[in-house]
């Protein structure tokens, strides 16, 4: 990807941090687009010298003119669209959620259409599973927004031949995952390192997707021109909350971490082989390796004074 310039929306987010790390490693130019200039999560994923190589542009994803101007000025050849407001934020402010999640995705599709960009990957969500008729899973505004985005992407291919790859991540965990209803397993890992007590507020089956695996899939999705508007699940590893709290205690025997409450309200196991068939192989992480790497990095960050018990919330 040495000839590519990739625009990453939601650049301040968790997945984006690791996506940008991988893009830089692949030799691509990286343009980060975010409402904030807070590069804290990017700094968890890569050295500050690499963060400085990112062309960080401030802008509101709901402002289509600004987005298109940035993409045109930098000669963007691919877009990875990760900007979103998650489940609790959409519930707290439905209008803001719709502006970011739905209007923001329209603006990304319009940017690709008008600039002739043939490489576009966007984040949908496992939350879409709650939107089907008679679905046993939780229905949310966030899931409704993502279902709308998937439908819009299909129409953009139908009407204007704008290709896209929609990826529905399972529950992302790893360094930088610190907000949203499903961030709790990562918070538990940090709690174990800082000596804080923490209970994950759900139990049972759970889809654990290491953030570096998610990043690898998104980067692979824009590695070449695509056709169509496919949407694919990215499950990670199906396991249980109880198994992972056991793994955490294996790395930190004194950890006061546990779980309580009802099962997680989304499916724990969805096939992600179709994604690899569509975009090519991407790097996968065993659950034990992802947990171990997360805890090891948290230990380094705590020792360096960059994370602390106050960050467990």
UniProtKB/TrEMBL annotation:
Pathways per UniProt: Bacterial outer membrane biogenesis; LPS O-antigen biosynthesis
Source organism, top-level taxon: Bacteria
Gene3D superfamilies (UniProt xref): NAD(P)-binding Rossmann-like Domain (3.40.50.720)
Cross-referenced InterPro entries: Epimerase_deHydtase, NAD(P)-bd_dom_sf
Domain NAD-dependent epimerase/dehydratase: 6-228
Pfam families: Epimerase
Recorded family membership: Belongs to the NAD(P)-dependent epimerase/dehydratase family.
UniProt-recorded name of the protein: Nucleoside-diphosphate-sugar epimerase
Organism field: Labrys wisconsinensis
